[in-house]
């Protein structure tokens, strides 16, 4: 039975390593910029998507380990509530702090003290670095949803560490 | 009430598997990164080995603070005490297992940790032809990094591995020397 700290430390290493491995973006380069910075931006995007992909696989595997009774959700909202309570407690030892929805397939999950950001800073400092620490978790959410039969797009945003919001948009097939 | 209890157990199980699942996904990703490069593929074992040792070391360097804060263990007076703490407190705390300590060298500077199975391999699929040492080195790196932070230079390596078909998993720990001054790594 592995302790939660091991995951946190490993995640930190993965973020640091994948960044160095894939690219050397200059300061102030944001994902999606064009022109001469596009090359570095591509490297940056690749790192985030690799992390997201790993999170997705892990989320899928976690979803597969759920007991049968939890899989009998009646509604989409029940699934999201499950993510906010059971999944979040299992992975981060706390519940999501709020869940909002437009009842049309978009959900915003807010964590006011996201454990993977807490070790970094408080406030607006390091905002540029924050996405690196969220990519894996976005994939995790997407992967667990996938196992529960729901296709989604998950993105995250940070206005002020360590609060972050995960936006889940359900994809209708 | 019982439904809640079930939920709790499942949460715990998921939480404990998160680390091993993530570790497995990382290894799979690394193998994928290199699978199209022919030259690199031949060197894959060495590359993966060289990947996990320093990563494990970095983790160990941070982990020791977490460990000392949570375990209330005092300073160890000799290598035997260190061995006990590693096996009975640290492994128990982080991996939920207690390896046995055996094969002490006559000088008391080497010992083996015997694990019934390799704790990191539950969800890892070994690609064909690749040595299982790649997984082991994360753990060895962690041990080395953590002990260095408490002024002990050690060598840790796997000498047997259930992944390779051995009956048990054995980590050999060797005490090199006490680190007298708090010099930053690389300046000795």
TrEMBL record, chain A:
Family matches, as InterPro entries: NO_sig/Golgi_transp_ligand-bd, TRAPP_component, TRAPPC6/Trs33
Keyword check for Endoplasmic reticulum: yes
Keyword Endoplasmic reticulum in record: yes
GO cellular component: cis-Golgi network; endoplasmic reticulum; trans-Golgi network; TRAPP complex
Coiled coil stretches, renumbered: none
Pfam families documented for this protein: TRAPP
Entry superkingdom: Eukaryota
Protein's GO biological process: endoplasmic reticulum to Golgi vesicle-mediated transport
CDD domains noted in UniProt: TRAPPC6A_Trs33
Localization, UniProt: Endoplasmic reticulum; Golgi apparatus, cis-Golgi network
Key words of the record: Endoplasmic reticulum, ER-Golgi transport, Golgi apparatus, Phosphoprotein, Transport
Function: May play a role in vesicular transport during the biogenesis of melanosomes.
Quaternary data: Part of the multisubunit transport protein particle (TRAPP) complex. Heterodimer with TRAPPC3. The heterodimer TRAPPC3-TRAPPC6A interacts with TRAPPC2L. Interacts with TRAPPC2L.
PANTHER family on file: TRAFFICKING PROTEIN PARTICLE COMPLEX SUBUNIT 6A (PTHR12817:SF2), TRAFFICKING PROTEIN PARTICLE COMPLEX SUBUNIT 6B (PTHR12817)
Family (UniProt): Belongs to the TRAPP small subunits family. BET3 subfamily.
Protein name: Trafficking protein particle complex subunit 6A
Taxonomic source organism: Lynx canadensis
Gene coding for it: TRAPPC6A
TrEMBL record, chain B:
Secretion signal span: none
Protein origin, superkingdom: Eukaryota
Biological-process GO terms, alphabetical: Golgi vesicle transport
CDD domains linked to this entry: TRAPPC3_bet3
Record carries keyword Coiled coil: no
GO cellular component: endoplasmic reticulum; Golgi apparatus; TRAPP complex
Keywords, in A-Z order: Endoplasmic reticulum, ER-Golgi transport, Golgi apparatus, Lipoprotein, Palmitate, Transport
One Pfam match: TRAPP
The keyword Hydrolase belongs to this UniProt entry's keyword annotation: no
InterPro entries given in the database record: Bet3, NO_sig/Golgi_transp_ligand-bd, TRAPP_component
Role, per record: May play a role in vesicular transport from endoplasmic reticulum to Golgi.
Assembly and binders: Homodimer. Component of the multisubunit transport protein particle (TRAPP) complex, which includes at least TRAPPC2, TRAPPC2L, TRAPPC3, TRAPPC3L, TRAPPC4, TRAPPC5, TRAPPC8, TRAPPC9, TRAPPC10, TRAPPC11 and TRAPPC12. Heterodimer with TRAPPC6A. The heterodimer TRAPPC3-TRAPPC6A interacts with TRAPPC2L. Heterodimer with TRAPPC6b. The heterodimer TRAPPC6B-TRAPPC3 interacts with TRAPPC1 likely providing a core for TRAPP complex formation.
Family: Belongs to the TRAPP small subunits family. BET3 subfamily.
Protein name: Trafficking protein particle complex subunit
Phylogenetic classification of the source organism: Eukaryota, Metazoa, Chordata, Craniata, Vertebrata
